[in-house]
Specification:
The chain has 232 residues and is of the alpha+beta class. Helices cover 29% and strands 12% of the residues. The protein is built from 6 helices and 8 strands, in the order αααβββαβααββββ. Helix 2 packs antiparallel against helix 3.
Length: 232
């Protein structure tokens, strides 16, 4: 709003609370209860942000929409932005119809260049600190947010080798080490989360890495392949 005022541009705020709750907040909380680590911004972009932008653009008779993601949209395809601040992964679930209308003016820029340009235009956000928090959890306390949604489970550690009680599996993610301290005199990591029993299994790091990954609910921007293939 402040930047629009500084540049003399019309500004309109859309109320997206209901859509955010349905498509982002609830799936976010439910994923943690399943022992998963969700990426809510990836869910939000196609189902809330870009969908509402396209709907509003249609109402205005506008052909294109634009966001500030550090990625490139060219010819109906999505490409990486500059390596130091690439955000193309945030748009990995974009719909083809949304991508065809999307303009990404910052795609070829580094964030330092964006700040310099904003400062030259006198925009108040030019030196605004980077935010790593979720827009719907601005204080960073996502565990408190989840617990407000659903009662956290409390349970013992792995049968026969309990280390401690914990405040719910939503407080952990695979590979996590921070906050675990040392168990049995050694550094440990979260190696498994068992949502059925509420157990969080710790290990010394063995078995945390894999050369394969199972995926589901893919969003293809190219013709869907008919057979398995190698990719990075």
């Amino acid at each position: 709003r402040a930047c629009a005022e500084a540049m003399g541009l019309p500004f309109e705020a859309l109320d997206a609370r209901a859509e955010l709750e349905e498509h982002v907040c609830r799936p976010f909380a439910e994923a943690y209860r399943r022992g998963e680590t969700p990426s809510p911004c990836v869910l939000c972009n196609p189902s809330v942000k870009l969908r509402l932008l396209c709907e509003r653009a249609d109402a205005l008779g506008a052909e294109y929409i634009a966001t500030g993601h550090y990625a490139r949209a060219e010819g109906g395809a999505l490409y990486m932005g500059r390596p130091e601040n690439d955000q193309s992964y945030m748009l990995c679930r974009i719909l083809p119809d949304q991508l065809r209308r999307l303009l990404l003016p910052l795609g070829g820029m580094a964030k330092t260049e964006t700040r310099e340009l904003a400062a030259s235009l006198g925009l108040p956000a030019a030196q605004k600190p980077d935010s790593m928090e979720l827009c719907f959890v601005p204080d960073g306390d996502y565990t408190g947010f989840i617990e407000a949604w659903c009662r956290a489970c409390r349970c013992e550690g792995e049968t026969g080798a309990a280390v401690a009680r914990h405040g719910g599996i939503h407080r952990f993610t695979l590979g996590q080490r921070r906050g675990l301290g040392y168990a049995a005199g050694k550094r440990v990591y979260v190696s498994e989360i068992r949502p059925g029993s509420g157990e969080v299994v710790l290990a010394d790091g063995d078995g945390l890495f894999s050369d394969e990954v199972a995926v589901r609910d893919m969003r293809w921007l190219v013709p869907e392949p008919e057979a398995p293939f190698d990719c990075q």
